[in-house]
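Recap from last week: sequence in, structure out.
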Amino acid sequence: LLAALDVRHVKAGPSGAPSRGRSDVLPTGRNLFTSDPRTMPTPTAYDLGRAAAEEVVRGYMQSHGDWPRSLVIDLWGSASLRTGGEEIAQGLALMGCRPQWDSATGRITGIEVLPPAMLGRPRVDVTWRISGLFRDMFPTQIALIDAAANAVAARDEEDSENPLAAKTRADGKISPRIFGTSPGTYGAGVEDILSSGNWSARDEIGRAYLDATSHAYGGAGGEGISAPGAFEGRIAEADLLVHTGDDPGRDILEGSADVAFIGGFSAAVAALGRNA
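Predicted structure tokens:
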């Protein structure tokens, strides 16, 4: 700050949250730039995401006495910037995948699908609900997630060990696993009706959430295509929603976005006749 006030050069440095393992952002006070998306998730983010994934599995097992087979991850662009891709890593770890990094540049070069013996548990069929900001900023990560899903779906493994491959064999093809709003639109799709109070039943909120998540994303460029009803099918099979709170200094009720995304998902599950 003193250097800037004295019209001297301020060194550049990456942005992020030190509390999420981002020691590279220290010392603070530098001229910030965002993370290099070609390095996300970073090795540190993967270690933290893998630990979080195992906690999700352990918690579900303790509560339900069985492994989770299918879940939805709420993936936000802002959180990914702060953590270096921890939420992406969490989903990949649940699927039994690990990024491969170039040792010289730290950039991701591909995906490794870990064998069941190394996992020690069944894979989880992960569906990703991406925010509009994530869609715009991280097409490379969308392509990475899509490649991981296709690789897992192609594995010749027991149905009990790989629910994604089992469903792919039953359907004859892999259905989309990454969903969001249409290009150029943002939010969960329920913000307007919540703020206006223009609804009389919870099902209306759930339907608005499902209708807004109308596009599937994937491919080498992270492109989106219209896929009405596809996300509804994934929610109907999901055992739980994972929404990671990466900022310990902010309460979940302080912002409307958490309410819209988590509440929208819960209302959608209820609208489909399941317990939310």
